[in-house]
Amino acid sequence: MRPNSAGSLFQLLRDGQPRTRADLAATTGLARSTVAARIEDLLATGLLAPTGEAASTGGRPPATFAFNPRARVVVAVDLGVSHARVAVTDLGGHVLAEDTLDLAIADGPEPVLDRVVEVARALLREVGRPESDVAGMGVGLPGPVEHASGRPTSPPIMPGWDGFDVPARLGEAFPVPILVDNDVNIMALGEHEAVWPDVDDLLFVKIATGIGAGIISDGTLQRGAQGAAGDLGHIAVPGGAQAPCRCGNLGCLEAVAGGPAVAAALREQGLEVPSNAALVDLIRSGNLEATLAVRQAGREIGAVLATCVNLLNPSVIVIGGAVAAAGEHLLAGIREVVYTRSLPLATQHLRIVASRTAGRAGVLGAAAMVAQHVLSPEQINALVGSAD
Amino acid sequence: MRPNSAGSLFQLLRDGQPRTRADLAATTGLARSTVAARIEDLLATGLLAPTGEAASTGGRPPATFAFNPRARVVVAVDLGVSHARVAVTDLGGHVLAEDTLDLAIADGPEPVLDRVVEVARALLREVGRPESDVAGMGVGLPGPVEHASGRPTSPPIMPGWDGFDVPARLGEAFPVPILVDNDVNIMALGEHEAVWPDVDDLLFVKIATGIGAGIISDGTLQRGAQGAAGDLGHIAVPGGAQAPCRCGNLGCLEAVAGGPAVAAALREQGLEVPSNAALVDLIRSGNLEATLAVRQAGREIGAVLATCVNLLNPSVIVIGGAVAAAGEHLLAGIREVVYTRSLPLATQHLRIVASRTAGRAGVLGAAAMVAQHVLSPEQINALVGSAD
């Protein structure tokens, strides 16, 4: 990457602050003529826009320029097992329009992705942006994904998706960069960008039918060697029951504390809980059995999170997902065990909090993943035709 | 950081390949005159050296330059509970001289660090390098360290060291950058640099009196929010015994599988095992009880590592430390449980191997940590006096 390329210069402008040509020359040490030429290139892409004039120091006041996140849009998609959220955002991660829809991931990739494209097109029409304004598309899937290729790898609850070329299919509708990742990874990205941008070590835990985590270490999302990092659901609960798990092992966290496991425990007490939403409703209505069951699930999750705390030493753990909507009872169970079981050094500044993105963590993260890619020095240089 | 600074240019030369001024101008897009001036600055530091001439394309053949790792040396220190290893290396991590010594970390920081300084000075004399050649000093300590300040934080087995300003004390003898980290973190760095440079996700596990891990994710050492990441020793063993641990909890990995725990189990069978070295000797001599005990310890460690695998998805786990010298019996116990308990996706390409640095992982990592710092753009710019 040439240090004097338009892409490199643009990185300085990502913070949105207006700057003059002289500011940029002083910061970079590049020649004024080089800066002026790069500014022209960036203005032509629309990603840089004039923002007025700086105070004059005598003579004509110099023009200022800033990153214009509204120049292009992103289609952000958060696919769950039984529903999806699709949003159109700008490059700064602001949601311009969004829609949630019921769909079954088990229907297979073609019908699901075609439906996503349909909804995305409707949202673009709604905000009055042509499809040519789409800079990229970000997709979260409820299973492991090989991030480099965008293909799911052996996803346990996504029949027909194993190895499917998601970017190729979506690329037929939107010929733009298409980035795919595990849903919990993009939730971690979204919560981090929107709520905790200054925290370097954050764990986002999704508690729903399955249980998984997205890991931000040293400010960066950690995917692991096969994109399988953060799979909390199949960790053996310390000292836990030996409940059989769909993965073939015994005593996995998901088998003792996932939404269906809590529902099964309540069924033995004569309570029918057909869904995670029904479980949350029961707790909100003050049902004691449901409250006790969720608090106990929190303790089991806490036992595994205590291990995560000793291993990763995060400063924030965010709890999200459909069951997390049960609120403080779940958090109380988690905190109880984490603060008992983890080392004092690792917990002295640790916060365990509920997600604050109101179900939007996934689409916000998908948008951030795309913005990170399309605004990188390489992509900007390709755009201005000076890549080398 | 100015993209056209000497420090930025030097990063291109870190790989040691000889380059001409023209090569560098072409790669960076900088003006020939700028490149020539930066080369002069870097030559003056000695870190860049002339390496001859490239093939001529007509006229005088152009001069080539390359990073000279022998220009300066590093003092690398790996402090254990009862011994230390001190080495003098070049900036490329090649050991020029080294010494191991018996010392008790419990004697407190002043006597221990003074002894380290004494040995370092002797090694410098041995290799005939003046103290002014020392570019930096790297130190590993057997406890949690706040890396930014170089101070141990609540180390459980280092009386007198809590909050001690290690860099200040050593800086009295060597007025150079002094970087301090947890010993397992630097072992992970050393094994990664020396043996697995192309692996992005690696876990180094030290099994000795204590048990700990250094985590490399996405090519970078992960320290966590308080520098406490990788503390495997106090993770609760899944389904494990409830042995009391010195940390105040029950069933910690260290309490069931650390060197002293194995020795205690053997003592109940009438075998006296006074040290980790004695345990290793027993196993090498073919003692069945000791072999069975170490294999069982491997299984307990494997249960916790299975959790690490699901959480971090590394592609290599390196087993090191004094008990690891017991060899294949320990590894067999670990592999047995990891491959049973972790998800197939995370284990399909996973290798679990013994350390290949023959006890040198710590000093190699300390040297790498220092080289990374003193060769950074900022430090190089400070050296040539063009920092801004």
Automatic annotation (TrEMBL), chains A, B:
Pfam families membership: ROK
SUPFAM superfamilies linked to this entry: Actin-like ATPase domain, Winged helix' DNA-binding domain
InterPro entries the UniProt entry points to: ATPase_NBD, ROK, ROK_cs, WH-like_DNA-bd_sf, WH_DNA-bd_sf
PANTHER family: GLUCOKINASE (PTHR18964:SF173), ROK (REPRESSOR, ORF, KINASE) FAMILY (PTHR18964)
Family, as annotated: Belongs to the ROK (NagC/XylR) family.
Protein name as catalogued: ROK family protein
Organism of provenance: Georgenia ruanii
